[in-house]
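Morning!

This is the sequence you dropped in the shared folder:
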Amino acid sequence: MMQRLLEIDARWSQKVRVAEKPGLLRTLAAILAHSGDSWFWLLGLIVLYAAGDTYWRWRASVLAIGIVVTALLVLVIKFTVRRRRPEGEWGAIYRKSDPHSFPSGHAVRAIMLAVVMTGLGPAWLSLILIIWAPLVALARAAMGVHYLSDVLAGIILGALMGVLVGLVYW
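The structure's back. Tokens below.
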């Protein structure tokens, strides 16, 4: 039964894949896939903390702590499950630094950020992140570095982590 589910997952993941198809959709997917990188977010939050007032410093701190805690949980799961990433060329940095695909850390992080900011506000930023987060998750499968089930698990785990981080800070 599990083998059958994995085959279905691989087949559907292949259908959404655009990594090998040049064009606008691939370019957008690549940009979205990278926009969820943890280093990018942590760097941006450091800048926000340094340049912001108390309102933004507090939010930057909450999000940075959420990113770090979430990353630790994702690493534990990845190195427990050890599912290999789909074959492909795009995303060499991910493939070398982290050969495991389950769950998608980018999906977890993006959804967690959206959920936390929905509780913290401002509303305009929450709305942007609510639109952005599922696109990041889908872009990871579209670029071939994750299966759809990795992304779905990431979305669920990200929502749970967002609520947990939110409960601590809301």
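Headline: Residues 2-169 form one domain.

More detail when I'm at my desk.
O.
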